[in-house]
Amino acid sequence: MLKILKYSFFDLIRSRWSYVYLLFYLLLGCVLLFLNNDLSKAVITLMNVIIILVPLIGTIFGVMYYYNSKEFTELLLAQPIKRSTIFIGQYLGVALSLSMSLIIGLGIPFVLYGLFQSNEIWDFVLLLVTGTFLTLIFTALAFNIALYNENKIKGFSYSILLWLFMAVIYDGLFLMSLIAFQSYPLDSFSIGATLFNPIDLSRILILLKLDISALLGYTGAVFQKFFGTGFGLLISIAALSIWVILPVLNIYRKSRKKDF
Amino acid sequence: MIRIEQLHKQFGKNKVLKGIDLEITNKGVFAILGPNGSGKTTLIKALLGMVIPNKGQLVVGNENIKKNWKYRDQIDYLPQIANFPANLTVKELIAMIKDLRNRTGEDKRLISMFQLEPFLSKKLSNLSGGTKQKVNLVLTLMFDSPIIILDEPTSGLDPIALIRLKEIIAEEKAKGKIILITSHIMSFVEEMADEIVFLLEGKVYFKGSIEVLKIQTDESNFEHAIANLLRQEYA
Fold first, then answer.
1. Of A58, A93, A139, B200, which is most buried with the most CB atoms under 10 A?
2. Chain A positions touching chain B (beta carbons under 8 Å)
3. What is the predicted pLDDT for the residue at A79?
4. Phi and psi (nearest 5°) for B78?
5. Of the candidates B28, B18, B43, which has an alpha carbon nearest to the alpha carbon of residue B151?
């Protein structure tokens, strides 16, 4: 698997889009630091961008890579290599190269600004960790969608819809249900609903760490009350890990049964 | 050795293979022929484990291929459409496939045979269709495996490369390998093949040498003999 991972990774690292993605984060990091002149504010702004953008890029890149490398995958399938190795290797290649763009792109401006001397270093690290989690999750979901759909257009549409649902629609539905059932106790419902959306989960995770009660919102407050900051962090990281593991297991399962 | 017993495969409602029985024990060049949609590619892909059959047994060498992947080390496969990672160079791709198979290959000789030296450090996305096919051939033929499967090997090749390809096939045959070829170019098939496996509607309709086919269909021309096979069916 390491060989496949290595080759997918290098293939992607050399593509123009990885550089565009990297440059985008470099620019974003620089501009935010320049405008805010404050690390902790920059981290909060970045969080809002990352939480929406990383899933989008993860899904689009995942689907695009799968469809683009289809013939090459067929070449690999004819080699004496296990099927699951090929797909998991490719998946990790995409996800890791995207995560690297994120980490390097944001890391450089923050380090230059003097991250290591500041108290916000752990907030920033947590931001990168959630960014990496989101990349892993959404690339895996994208690979799943692509594996189930031979038709490129369908695959693309489903993955965009998935992103739209998770990033925008889910929150709307969530809020509406909170309003509709406001006369009932909603604590466990809102915790459950948050765990079911990796984007919400990441947001809460970062806000818990930053300890900005004003920004926490209802679910965040419930989260903090239920789990406390430390345990809440642990629970949300565990939930994010499950969000990575389940789709990857499904890639493994589906790739063994599929015809090419 | 290749043994196929009662191979069935359907995609959705479309039954492509309806009970293929085929046994290839002797060496030589076998041409798998048949009209479009007769299941040639599906059969080859089933043999490679890319398509998972609904029913039936497939044995390559002495191994049943179900849930097995190591047997593919005995097979060199040339896919129909040559498309490679766009950001790699030819040299890197060849090195990569060698690395993935963990074997040394005879790539140098093949590269000079197909005159690919000037393209070695070019990116694959910048190559023409014919050159890509040559790279594809090098990738397939550089390993010395007992079974070779070529899916439309002639597509896009210039006359010199075609002559080279024929030489290579003849050489590999002399080494005692089993070579499976699909092609729509009948003159190529007639020149190279020892035996014909003719598929029709998901079954083996004819298996035997070209001479037998000519006698059976009462035609002296191979192309007409094949056409005759089809007409008998349609009539």
1. A139
2. 3-4, 7, 11-12, 14-15, 68-72, 74-83, 257-260
3. 86
4. -105, 110
5. B43
Residue appearing with tokens 């989960």: A201
| A120 close to A39: Cβ distance less than 8 angstroms | yes
The answer to whether the CB atoms of A72 and B85 lie below 8 A apart is yes
pLDDT number for residue B234 = 56
Measured between beta carbons, the chain A residues lying within 8 angstroms of B77 are: 78
Model pLDDT, residue B227: 83
Mean pLDDT, residues B207-231 taken together: 83
Which residue is closest to A2 within chain B, CA to CA? B100
User: What residues of A are in contact with residue B99 (Cβ under 8 Å)?
Assistant: 3
Give B-chain residues touching A254 at CB under 8 angstroms: none
What integer pLDDT is reported at residue A151 of this predicted model? 92
Cβ within 8 Å, pair A72-B99:
no
- Give me the interface pTM, i.e. the ipTM: 0.80
Which residues does chain B have within 8 Å of residue A17's beta carbon, measured at their own beta carbons? none
Spatial distance between the Cα atoms of B213 and B207, rounded to a whole number of angstroms: 9
pLDDT at position A249: 95
Q: Exposure pattern of A41-60 as b/e (b: 16+ CB <10 Å)?
A: ebbbbbbeebbbbbbbbbbb
Helix A2-13, helix B90-101: angle, nearest 10? 170
Tell me which residues of chain A have a pLDDT lower than 50.
none
Q: Which two tokens stand for residue B148?
A: 């070779």
CB contact under 8 A, A71 and B79: yes
Nearest to A260 among B51, B71, B83 (CB): B51
**Coil, strand, or helix at residue A17?**
helix
Predicted local distance difference test score (pLDDT) of residue A57: 92
User: Which residues in chain B have Cβ-Cβ distances shorter than 8 Å to A69?
Assistant: 85
- State chain B's mean pLDDT as an integer: 86
The answer to whether the CB atoms of A71 and B51 lie below 8 A apart is no
Quick one: average pLDDT of B47-66?
85
- The amino acid present at A24, given as its one-letter code, is F
Query: What is the model's pLDDT at position A14?
Result: 77
pLDDT of B235 over the 60 cut: no
Confidence (pLDDT) at A135: 95
Cβ distance B72 to A80 less than 8 Å, yes or no, reads: yes
**Kind and range of the H or E element at B176?**
none
- The pLDDT value given to residue A216: 62
Show the DSSP H helices in chain A as ranges.
2-13, 16-36, 39-68, 70-77, 83-113, 121-148, 152-164, 170-180, 187-195, 198-210, 213-257
